[in-house]
Amino acid sequence: MQIETTALEGVLILTPARFGDARGFFSESWNRRRMAEAGIDIDFVQDNHSLSEAAGTLRGLHYQAPPHAQAKLVRCGRGRLFDVAVDFRAGSPSFGQWVGVELSHENGRQLLIPAGFLHGFITREPMTEVIYKCSDHYAPECDGAVRWDDPEIGIDWGLPEVSSGDAPGTPILSDKDRAAPLLAAAPRPFRFETGSMEGAS
Asked: Of 62, 63, 68, 119, which is the active-site residue?
């Protein structure tokens, strides 16, 4: 397993080894013991699988607040997407900053996003499947979102590549994501704690 750091502390790119032959390949996408040896000690309890039929589908920016905050490990089962994490921990030196990574079936990369970070992605190809592990179960009362195009965050989603949505260069959104508040108006359910990978209050 190759482990790469990003500009946001705790947000990691994990690339599992692939062992291939004429039939295809085998890859171990998660091994709790090996990750703990590498300093990544997260107990995942739920796996989610989403399919986006059209390129240019944007989901995010989402979070789940304490006491059911979620760390996530995101990978692409089919297709291609641009995956984004945003530091959402009040008091963090990198609050509001983001990193983005292309995940695809071909490159096999995974993005590890600790609790306390917003998460979102935009699909680059039709019929893109996203598979992700979560460290807590879904709790609708803790579900929240921040607006995907907040200028204070300034994510470059690569919209010129998008040809779907309401107009050229506009992503396909859910009503929930379209109505999400800006960062300045959003609650602050997380606080920055030095040395805490989870980052949850």
From this structure: 62
| Cis peptide bond N-terminal to 61, omega within 30 | yes
Provide the 3-class DSSP secondary structure of residue 96: coil
d(CA 55, CA 190): 32
Beta bridge partners of 49: 131
Catalytic residue list contains 132: yes
Catalytic, out of 63, 68, 119, 132: 132
Tokens 């602050």 belong to residue: 188
Which strands sit side by side in the sheet containing 2-5, from one edge to the other? 2-5, 12-15, 110-113, 72-78, 128-134, 46-52
Catalytic status, residue 138:
no
Whole-number Å distance between alpha carbons of 103 and 77:
9
* pLDDT tens digits, one per residue of 27-81: 888 888 888 888 899 999 999 999 999 999 999 999 999 999 999 999 999 999 9
The one-letter amino acid at 87: D
| Model confidence, pTM | 0.90
Q: What are the pLDDT digits (tens) for 162-184?
A: 555 556 678 999 999 999 999 99
